[in-house]
Amino acid sequence: MRAKNNNGMGWLFASPYLLYGLIFFLIPLGWSFYLSITDWNLIAPVFHHVGIDNFIKALKSPGVHAAFFVTFKFMIVFVPMVIASSLIVALVVHGLPRFKGLFLIGFFLPYLASGVVSSFIVKGFLSYNSPVNTFLRGQFGLDINWLGTPLSALLLVAVIIAWKFTGYYALILTSGFESINQEIYEAAAIDGVNGWQRFWKITLPLLYPALFTTLILSIGVTFGIFTEVYQLTGGGPNFGTNTWQMEIYKQAFQNLSAGYASAVALIASVVTFISIFIIRKFLEMWGKRNGWT
Amino acid sequence: MKMKKAASLLLGASVLAGSLAGCSTGNPASEDSTSKNGTTTIEFWAAPNPPQQAYWKETAKAFEKDHPKIKIKVSPIKESPTSEASIQSAIAGKEAPTMSENINRGFAAQLAESKAIEPLNKMAGYDDILKSRNMSNTIKGWKFSDGNQYVLPIYSNAMLFGWRLDILKKLGVNEPPKTYSEVLDVTKKLKAKYPDKYLWAKPDLADPTAWKRWFDFFMLYDAASGGNKFIEGNKLVADDKAGVDVLNFMDNIRKEKGILTKQSKDPFETGLGIFTDIGPWTLQYWEEKFPEMKYNETFAFSTPPVPDGTDTKNVSTFADTKGLVIYSSAPENEKKAAMEFIKWVYSKPENDVKWMEKTNLPPARDDLATNDAFKVIYEKNPALKPYAEAIPNAVPSIDNAKYNELQTYIGQYAVNPVVKGEVQPKKGWEKMKEAIEGDLK
């Protein structure tokens, strides 16, 4: 009887979240499924059910192909970049004798900065007639088309996003470092372990949970890139930075094709889910093989 | 058991809440929304910029004095994320206003196809507006492919090209070139004297975003084709010769190293580029940020350059123009009141004078260059006169509901690769046509 009462209370306390989930996730998801099999633009009085035509069209679309590959390109560039930079920041902060919190807040601030503002600043900074480019041309004869080639534009966007997320991930990694008991290092030193063994056999295994979290979070970020790309490149040049979010935005808000945009969004969700699932399994296997989990 | 009941209750409540939200009826078109005291209130969404907001609020107040039974609520169109998307959401949520402004022809075509806006030509009082505002010629180009007029153009920016006159003079050229070969000649002279400067410094040339084609390709294409419609209904009717000429022109400037597509800050104002599209709104910006830009000293205007051998008088150009629409979802009494308001506004030229003074945007009227009421504006700001003179030759944007996709192809397959030297102009034109025709099927 008591267990039943507890269950009821549990449901009651969970109900706000369940309601929220139902209204803001489940109903829109169902609605999105429905839209994806129509050619509706949300305003026409008449629309048609088109079956899986929107999905077929999306799978043949150069914009969707680009979104698929660009996301993985971003992943290859962005994830190592942000993990390395946040590890460095975390190591530096961890080694500080005091004011660790203050420095961490400083590194965390870019995370709070508006992507629109930082993109505008970068745009001005790298414009053809900016002091930086004028200097590079004048002194070294370097005329770099920063946003004009797919590779440089992708690298630049990855750097901006890495700058934004470094402080956030460093916060997670610093807490990982802080949780490692110093006595383990002291014991290892007595046993005569070298620097590499110290890192590989002690630091990495004990930091693994924090590292796992940051890796999964950073991989997730690559599936949601929008603001920087929208502001700096519009998905170009030649679809070189056309992310899933950019493609969905173009279809939904520029072409006003709600049905087709829903199909693209659903494909993006499936790709995201499968990719993260596979990567997560690999990371878990890596941890298990080394005995870290 | 209790848990099941609680869960069922929760689910039931959610579904009911969702259904109720989804079933909100807003203002059904059949309903009469006149209040008990006989007042009709109409909702008017105006462009979110301060000058236009101020203009419409003042004008609405003046109208209400003359028409106490009609109230006009002026509010800015939300731009989340774009004004078009906000309007689309409002219509979908049955929260559309009675009328709104800032609607371009392409978006109007999307709305018209969805039967979301009224054909104004079928509403009582439409002909009176055309007559009293003297806009019968200007509005001709606005006729949609189904023969209706869904938008009443408020302003028409006949887009012109600006030239850095001070730099041209240093090259020994006293007035803006008019033909392609004259422009190429200027490019050669410019690169010989100032290798670091460019004829056309504009990052948008390498950007496929649909609307950007209005301010490069369509200006030149309208001029080269004499105002050919490009797309009529669902058919590509583009003038091949004019299109390839335009792309060849761009390619030739590129070959002379006269095009810069890298991001640059204020390239025309800083003299990095000496040729660019200019709308009248730029003049206000220059007054504040670049007071050294003086008409007929630092800069001059010209209609778009044309292929050699083409008449250089009465050259067509692109009309950046937006207008008013009335939404079909509004109750009949509101639609009538909205029409009454539009009739009142455009029965008096002084309202258009006030509009131009506040916004610098040329009203869409046939007599803008000749009507004495506007003379005082040109005396104060002579740079606006060329815009007024170009209005009769200005061609509005295409009226296809897929304008966004279609104009993206122009950039993606033709303009962008041509200015980067990645495709031959003729080949680019053919690929663009293939993509457009494929989408129009």
UniProtKB/TrEMBL annotation, chain A:
Keywords of the record, alphabetical order, are: Cell membrane, Membrane, Sugar transport, Transmembrane, Transmembrane helix, Transport
Q: How does it sit in the membrane?
A: Multi-pass membrane protein
Membrane-spanning residues where? 12-34, 66-93, 102-126, 146-165, 206-226, 258-279
Tell me where in or outside the cell this protein is found.
Answer: Cell membrane
Gene Ontology BP term (one)? transmembrane transport
- What SUPFAM superfamilies does the entry give? MetI-like
List the GO cellular component terms.
plasma membrane
Is the Endoplasmic reticulum keyword given for this protein?
Answer: no
Domain of life per record:
Bacteria
Stretches assigned to the ABC transmembrane type-1 domain: 68-279
Q: Which family does it belong to?
A: Belongs to the binding-protein-dependent transport system permease family.
Q: What is this protein called?
A: Multiple sugar transport system permease protein
Organism encoding this protein: Fictibacillus solisalsi
UniProtKB/TrEMBL annotation, chain B:
Q: Where is the signal peptide?
A: 1-21
- Keyword set, alphabetical order: Signal
- Which PROSITE patterns has this protein been placed in? PROKAR_LIPOPROTEIN
Q: Which domain of life is it from?
A: Bacteria
Q: Which Pfam families match?
A: SBP_bac_8
Q: Write down what this protein is called.
A: Carbohydrate ABC transporter substrate-binding protein, CUT1 family (TC 3.A.1.1.-)
Species lineage, top-down?
Answer: Bacteria, Bacillati, Bacillota, Bacilli, Bacillales
